[in-house]
Amino acid sequence: MTERAEEAWREFAAAVAEISIVPAEEIRRDSLLVDDLGLDSLALAELAMLAETEFGSDNLLEDLEGLDVPRLTAGLVFDSYLATAPRRV
Amino acid sequence: MPSLHGRRVYLRAPIPDDYPDLYLRETSSDRSALGGLAGSTPPYEEWLRARSAGVLCQHIALTTAANTRLGLVTAFGADFANGHAHLAALSFAPERPRPMFLIGLGIFIDYVFGCWAFHKLYLDVVEPNYAQFASGAGQVFEVEGRLKDHHYLGGRRWDQIILAIHRSRWSEFSARWLGGERA
């Protein structure tokens, strides 16, 4: 990862930690959102809203309807929706 | 009156074409296992009469992009003297996480608090369904009661959990949570 991408990952992990049962430093790219990070439907919706308002990614909420959510990892969400999104804050 | 339209989810009142599907969902074995009619199959006309009793308002939640029906949200049992009412939420895909339906439920709660001066709304949840939004305890709602072994579903007993959504706490959460949807 580039320095910018690493910084974005740390910010993402910190944001996820606020809605997860796991502290930011323990969130890995292969952490499963549901089984490892304990995100339920409400927390997933909050993650999608957070991705939108703070990270500038518009599609996660709608895509969660079709994705295999139990297999989603933090790294996959970050790479697909956040790594290249224009920051809004 | 609060808007029923978000950017990706909107609500509309049920129309006659919706009811046969709702009847089938509430009488199916899958639905019964998580709090529908618990196995009984009342005649359609009787079910239709009973389901409107005490209802204050109800809406179907749909996606804006494809008009995919996400679920049904209902407010009922309004007690205007004491300022509270009950909510029910029926997801049309209960077997999988459905964050967009929860956005629809959020729009509905905004609507109910905006139309009537309730100070809190109760949501009765069968124990296995609670796991879908347990993370909201303490920030979106309070767990105000638990009826032990209240339901017999799928061959075992389950608790009924009584949640309360307070107006003051909801407005704070809604601004943060639904802000992107209202933009």
Please provide a written account of the structure.
The complex is a heterodimer of chains A (89) and B (183). Chain A is 51% helix and 0% strand. Chain A has helices at 3-19, 41-55, 60-63, 74-82. In chain A, helix 1 (3-19) packs antiparallel against helix 2 (41-55). The two termini of chain A are 21 Å apart. Chain B has seven helices and seven strands. Chain B is globular and about 40 Å long. The mean pLDDT of chain B is 89. Chains A and B meet through helix 2 of A and helix 4 and helix 7 of B.
- So what's the overall shape of chain A? globular
Q: Which secondary-structure class do the elements of chain B indicate?
A: alpha+beta
**Strands in their spatial order, largest beta sheet of chain B:** 1-2-3-4-5-7-6
- Put simply, the count of helices of chain A is 4
What is the gist of this entry?
The complex is a heterodimer of chains A (89) and B (183). By secondary structure, chain A is mainly α. Chain A contains 4 helices and no strands.
Layout of secondary structure:
The complex is a heterodimer of chains A (89) and B (183).
Chain A: H1 3-19, H2 41-55, H3 60-63, H4 74-82
Helix pairs in contact in A: 1-2
Chain B: E1 9-12, H1 18-27, H2 29-33, H3 44-52, E2 55-63, E3 69-79, E4 84-91, H4 99-115, E5 120-126, H5 127-130, E6 142-153, E7 156-166, H6 167-177, H7 179-182
Parallel strand pairs in B: 4-5
Antiparallel strand pairs in B: 1-2, 2-3, 3-4, 5-7, 6-7
